UniProtKB/TrEMBL annotation:
One of its GO terms (molecular function) is RNA binding. S-adenosyl-L-methionine binds at G103, L124, S132. Belongs to the class IV-like SAM-binding methyltransferase superfamily. RNA methyltransferase TrmH family. TrmL subfamily. Could methylate the ribose at the nucleotide 34 wobble position in tRNA. HAMAP family: tRNA_methyltr_TrmL (MF_01885). It comes from the Bacteria. GO terms for biological process: wobble position ribose methylation. It catalyses: cytidine(34) in tRNA + S-adenosyl-L-methionine = 2'-O-methylcytidine(34) in tRNA + S-adenosyl-L-homocysteine + H(+); 5-carboxymethylaminomethyluridine(34) in tRNA(Leu) + S-adenosyl-L-methionine = 5-carboxymethylaminomethyl-2'-O-methyluridine(34) in tRNA(Leu) + S-adenosyl-L-homocysteine + H(+). This is Putative tRNA (cytidine(34)-2'-O)-methyltransferase. GO terms for cellular component: cytoplasm. It is found in: Cytoplasm. Residues 4-144 form the tRNA/rRNA methyltransferase SpoU type domain. It comes from Helicobacter marmotae.
Length: 156
């Protein structure tokens, strides 16, 4: 079983997605891309950021969230990350096989989605006055908190 499922909802910047792909390979996680995307999968910036890791990445594309949820029904293992959350990512009970959702770089996850699952919404701590941090940095922070919690790294 893979470590985590990283779910990028409508990512816009290919370099971020490329970097996140590398994180997925390094952590034995799966990447799910929810359309519409702000780039083409073959775009050179995506491949450049992913380096030679992209060929080893398990990545899937979905036309919309409903199609994704049909394949992976929502349950307590789906976690949504947003600057609008109150709870910190350290408090999320991240377990192997969990789904970690991140929204568009310019808009985040849809407000209705966050309101529908309020007990499953978390944020990374940031100093007051800072609007957000880079998407790939956010994914890395959450993903490696999950690696720490799972303690599977001890097998690597």
């Amino acid at each position: 079983m893979k470590l985590f499922h990283i779910v990028l909802v409508e990512p816009q910047i290919p370099q971020n997605t490329g970097n996140i792909g590398r994180l997925c390979v390094a952590s034995d996680s799966i990447l799910h891309l929810i359309h519409p995307l702000g780039f083409k999968i073959g775009q050179k910036e995506l491949k450049r950021a992913g380096l030679d890791y992209w060929q080893h990445l398990e990545v899937y594309q979905w036309q919309h969230l409903q199609a994704f949820w049909k394949a992976f029904p929502l349950d307590k293992q789906h976690f949504f990350f947003s600057t609008k959350a109150r709870a910190l990512h350290y408090d999320a009970p991240l377990e192997q096989g969990g789904f970690l959702y991140f929204g568009r770089e310019d808009a985040g996850l849809d407000k209705a989605l966050l309101e529908e699952f309020p007990t499953q919404v978390y944020k990374l701590p940031m100093k007051a006055g800072v609007r957000s941090i880079n998407l790939a940095t956010s994914v890395g922070g959450v993903l490696y908190e999950g690696v720490r919690q799972s303690q599977l790294y001890k097998q690597w």
